[in-house]
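To: structure subgroup
Subject: Chain for Friday's discussion

All,

I'm putting the inputs and outputs inline so they're searchable in the archive.
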Amino acid sequence: MTTEADLNVKAEADIDIKGAGVPPLAPQAAPPDEAAAAKPSYGALLVVLAGLFITNLDFFIVNVAIPSLQTNMHATAAEIQLIAVTFTIGLSALLITGGRLGDIYGRRRVYSIGVLLFTLASLACGIAQNMGELIIARGIQGAAAALVIPQVLGILTTTYSGKHRAVAFNAYGIALGAAAVFGQLIGGLLIKADVFGMDWRTIFLINVPIGAIVLALTPKLVPESKSEGRTGLDLVGVLLVTAGLTAVVLPLVIGREEGWPAWTWLCMAAAVPLLAAFWFCQRRLAASAKSPLVSPSLFRDRAFGVGSVTILVYFSVMASFFLVLALYLQQGHGASALESGLLFVPLGLGFFVASAMAPKFAAKLGRQALALGALVVAAGDIAFAQTASQLGTTGSVGWCIPAMVVCGFGMGLVVAPLTSLVLEGVATEHAAAASGVFSTGQEMGNALGIAIIGVVFFDQVGEHPSAQGYTDGFGFSLYVQAGICVLVAVLVQFLPRKAEKA
């Protein structure tokens, strides 16, 4: 151990050497472990982003399979709806719990368990013999994804630091956006390929080899981490937050299809006391030095508190945009799933170009990079709405490509740096739990956006759908989404000024 006397002797020796004109000794190379910390391997990043990509992809890709399910499995409208509902509820309701499990039992361990369950559930979806089996497997898929997704940000937070963490968070945003942007295209290509005559089953079975590879590489490349100090799982909190989030998500997802019956409003009303009781329990546990499911101290960081609201609002635009765009292309212009998927490519190109540029924008503009991106999306939405109106139902959708590129570019400016700006102040011991809250905001935003924009869109379509009705609904929805993007730009201004310069 180096003592204070030793340090004084060394300091005097350095002074004597410099005074005599003798150059100081060259600094010794950093120990191997320090060198590794300075330049960490990005193998862990690739492995966890693979899990993130396939779990988020399955939220979007299943829409492509609806026509095939109706034809080959004789699926009813209610069964088609349940395929989406069971996955969304399993995912949204358990994300916070999944994050806390990672903090307690180890993020790599819980990530591996989640990937294993997701892979097995995907296999069950792919070999399902009837709609009942498929719906149950989809629910398990959603619950498994809730174990995977929070661990990704938790692992990145504890594995990387400084500029390497910024790179990792940027890659996280790109993977998240790519799953949404290219979900339609990937699904269309898989169904069109019809490998071994499996048709819609390929969109689920493709997860099996990817999941197996991720499981094999995780223990080799991903370091284990968990929360330090006293930990425990708040079972009362688990029950309250699961019931509360389910009470919000369930009516949002299926309320419009059911005509908003009384039970949907009662369900959402019940969510208020359930979530209030959850928050009261979390504060009480934190005050008694116990382990809450979500530490109230997370929201003392203004970046995290404001950022969580911003995430919810912004992702309400993302999910609903892809929904109404797919309906516009397929129902308004008669494009197939593959053709409409190919039309997503220009949007994806704009997204990836902006994602590559986003770190520089964030370094110069900080939080204003998010505001700029949101306003670019709003401008693209308005241009897209104007173009669709001029084209009607017979014009070439190729004229929409410039507006699609603009929309994709704006999305890339927002999604890529958003994670870093929101989570930069979160303590590592709360990494996975914070990731659970972050991801819950995203999924709640998806459900909220589809519910709100769905009402706007189908109100314009009317009771007797037509190509012109879908076109009118699409244009009107884009104006509403543009307004929400402006709201995002306003919310960003409440992020702390320390985010002004990244």
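Points worth raising on Friday:
The two ends are 38 Å apart (CA to CA).
Residues 1-38 have pLDDT under 50 and may be disordered.

D.
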